[in-house]
Structures are given as structure tokens and as C-alpha cells.
Amino acid sequence: GNNSTHLWFMFWLMGFLLSAPFLSKMFHAMSDIELHIVFGVGLLWNIITVLVFPFFYKQFSYGGWFLAGWILHFCLGYYIDRIKEYENVKWLYSAGIVGLLLNVLGITFGYNRFVASTDLAPTFILACAGAMFFFERNIKVSNDKVQKVIRFIARYTFILYMIHFNIIHYVTPIITAGI
Length: 179
Hints:
The protein is mainly α.
């Protein structure tokens, strides 16, 4: 089999990384209200394209909004980092919990119409945003050894993901040969 299919996202990621300096300038120049509007439209766009249209077995073919799909995830970290210290954003906790519950319900009861439930679904995006907001705002690690372990894991997790399929591809036949 083709053992490089797990790297499907690399082309997206390369585009995001090439766009990051320009997106950064744009987002930094925005007022907080403009930033809320942009991410609100992005979330609404995902609701329409990922939840509403597929529920009626329809294809939404217009792809002109720039925060559609994976780029919304990519930029969400900046958005949360910028608003996390404001007092009036505790709604993100509730949005995260509601997003998680709706995602679980959608997967459980609407599995044939609830597409992209673990990536592009707005319910999943809200669950991830709520979790990130919670960790960013509430989890403080002060122990130096624990910080070093976290940094080590963070530094090498992505590379482990990138090579794990190759290891599985070549090691599994050796292990299973005697079975």
C-alpha cells in the first residue's frame, strides 16, 4: 500500500506556513471587533458548509471564504491567544462543552449526515477552542522538570506522527511473520 497517505495534510500545512506572515499582519491590524466578526463568519461558514448542506444531502460548492476548512483551525490559536485574558470570554468554556456534546450526539444519532465530525465540523472546532481556552487560561506548569518533559514531547510529537506509518509499514510484517 501507499504509506505516504497519512501525510495528506502536508500540502495544506505548507500553504498555511507560507501564508502565516501575511495572515499575522492582517490579524494584528484588526480591532477586536473585526477579529470577532472574521472568526464568527468563519464559524458560520463551517456551519453552513459542513452541517447544514450535508444534512440535506446537498453540496455547497462556493469556496471563496478564506477562513473555510483547515485554515480556521490554523488561525484559531491566534484568536484564542488574543482574547484569552478578557473577562467577557468565559462563554468559550460553555461553547466548548456544548460543541463536544453536539459532536457526540451528531456522531451517535446522525452518523450518515454528520460529516467531518472529528475535524471540520463547527461543533468539533468549538470543542477544541473550548479545550484550548481552558488550558491556556487555567493550566500553569511551574515545575522546571515537568516543563522540560512537556517541551520535549511537544518538540517531537509531530515528527513521531510523520514517521509512525513508515515504522508500522516496515515493522508490522516482521512482527507478524511468525504468527
